[in-house]
Amino acid sequence: MDTNIINVTDKYQINVDKCKYFTNKIHALLQELLSSQNIDYLVVESRTKDIKSIKEKLDRKKYKDPEKEMLDIIGIRVILFYQKDLSKIEKLISDEFIIDLDNSMKKKDAYKESEFGYLSDHYICKLNGKRLALTEWCNYSDMHFELQVRTVLQHSWAVLSHKTEYKKDYEVPRELKRKLFRLASLIELADEEYMAIIDKNDELKANSKTVKSGDDEFHNTEEINLLTLINYIESAQVLNEIADIATNNKFEIRNLDKTYHDKIIKYCNAASIKTIKELNTFLEDSKLWANDFFKNIVLYSKWEIDYAFMIYMLLIYRCKNNISVDTLKNDGWEADFADRFYKKILKVTIDI
After folding, report:
1. Alpha carbon of 314 to those of 65, 258, 276: distances in Å?
2. Which residue has better confidence, 189 or 36?
3. What number of CA atoms fall less than 13 Å from residue 66's CA on the CB side?
4. Phi, psi of 275 (to 5 degrees)
5. Span of 84-98, 135-149, 253-267 with lowest mean pLDDT
6. Which residues lie across from 97 on neighbouring strands?
7. Every domain of the chain and the residues it spans
8. CATH superfamily assigned to domain 3-194
9. Is the separation of the CB atoms in 176 and 165 below 8 Å?
């Protein structure tokens, strides 16, 4: 066996525990750094090469100086949701570590305009002086690690392409190469389109109109969806008025963890309420009968609800002719509670 391989593997065998411990520390550090920058990610993965993998790579690569050239014994992978966060990660890494630019690469930059394939950013990093000055890190000045950064969709392509028996582009039969390129291009396009959806969603959130009860600028074209509904619940004066009625009938208004936005939208559709204006009109009208409704359906001496659940209950009554106990159970109600509530709303007779 090559003496270089023996030297590297012997040195690694001596330092295997140190390498594994460093891997775990870098893994935890990256999770903390990502969270501190509010960078949303799917997962952070890590691994430390075992002796067998090191020997195989050293034999395959034929390094001249393996101790200096083999820099991926410790590997970390960050899988992001959003393509836009790739640049944030790059800045984060630059601020927190020393990047070996000669041995780092962005796979996308390696392709010609007409080529598509595996995409991932690979950084070879080591600790900077600021972190090495800390007692808990000072023993790792000689340690490198490879950091791979990719999106969820880029990761899906990497996993799927790895399942083929072709590890290098030149190994792929010509009749398959075009199909693989086409698939890779679709995944790259999907990543960009998904980012466009996220950007548009952020724009809609920013531009979503806050419509209050009685507002002269109430737009009947504003459809009911998750964004407009959340915005409406946060701003509608009529809900404060209905909440006062509920409070007077042994209900307690709280901010609960579980929301019912999806069910509100479902029952709005069932009641042919299509716009925020129509929902607001329904709630304004409900003030006329809300007192009798809440007085008759109360099940506890003190029943905690939030604004979303309050709207949900009013809509259930609006749709009660099409409601069954099973409907409530499908909405997540416990069987006994669903049965008792169902019997209560059947007894309530209000002209709405």
Report:
1. 74, 17, 15
2. 36
3. 22
4. -125, 165
5. 253-267
6. 127
7. 3-194, 226-347
8. Beta Polymerase, domain 2 (3.30.460.10)
9. no
pLDDT in tens, 228-262: 898 899 889 999 999 999 999 989 998 876 779 99
CA gap 161, 167 in Å, rounded: 8
Q: What are the tens digits of pLDDT across the range 172-188?
A: 666 666 677 777 777 77
Instruction: Give the E-state strand segments of 67-172 in sequence order.
Output: 74-80, 97-99, 105-106, 121-127, 144-151
Q: Residue length, the chain?
A: 352
AA identity, residue 116: F
φ, ψ of residue 74 to 5 degrees: the values are: -105, 125
Furthest-apart CA atoms within the chain: distance in Å: 92
CA 257 – CA 69 distance, rounded (Å) = 52
What is the rounded CA–CA span in Å between residue 80 and residue 86?
8
Q: Give yes or no for a contact between 107 and 117, defined as CB atoms under 8 angstroms apart.
A: yes
- Residue 330 tokens read as 């499908």
Q: How far is CA 69 from CA 41, 65, 144, 342, in A?
A: 30, 6, 11, 71
pLDDT over 60 (residue 35): yes
What's the pLDDT band for 218 if we cut at 50, 70, 90? Answer: very low
Average pLDDT of the residues in 88-96: 94
Closest-CA residue to 239 (of 299, 311, 173): 311
Please identify which residue in the block is written with the tokens 């964004």: 227
Q: Which residues contact 54 (CB under 8 A, 6 or more apart)?
A: 8, 9, 12, 70, 73
**SS3 category, 298:** coil
C-alpha distances in Å from residue 261, one per residue of 149, 243, 277, 348: 35, 17, 17, 25
Other beta carbons within 10 angstroms of residue 118's beta carbon come to 16
CA separation for the pair 39, 84 (Å, rounded): 10
CB-facing half-sphere around the CA of 194: CA atoms within 13 A: 16
